[in-house]
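Can anyone check this?
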Amino acid sequence: MKKLFVCLALAGFALANPAFSQERAAAAPAAPAAGATHQVGLIDMAFVFKNYDKFKEMTEALQGDAKAAQAKAETMIGEMKTLQTNLQEVKEGTPEFSKIEKNLLDRQTELETFRKMQQREFLRKEAEIYKVVYLEVQDAVQKYAKFYKYTLIMRFNRQGVDDAENPQEIINSMNRQVVYYMEQDDLTDPILKFLNDEYAKSKGGAAAPAREARGGTTRPAATK
């Protein structure tokens, strides 16, 4: 009964996510030989994050908040400059001088506190964005792997030595853990397409057209 339930669940996933089925039909290798127990897949997480529409929109919104905070800080600095100018025009030791000086010191404290709070808040929001997106990618990878019987999905970097443009990139490329892989074991494109299409649907938009995958083959669009 348990095996039957698992089979039905997997079949339901295939019907709900024909993108994965189409992707597999278009680019998958032949079925593993009898007795084979391992199937390894690869995903370039950095590439997925960089090209996932939701991640881009969330980071752009965060950058907008950072710019607004910077504008507020600049306004506070402008007010402090005005106070400094006023202070220079007042005789030292007078009640007016003491009043302006105290106001200036208070503004300096406010600015320092504001900057520290904004920095902490920015780092907190940035970490939350990465967490949310990572969990979504992880969930898509798990569904794909379970349905298509992948036993291991590894992170890797698609960029090869021939794509490197500076000495550091060349060294990093040469230190990659994955030295060779078959194109069909790179799950980056179908996972990214699935994520972008699901995000577009959640916003009420249409699925994006199939993008050209590495190697020049066009993979089918992911639909639910």
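Reply from J.R.: I decoded it. The two ends are 27 Å apart (CA to CA).
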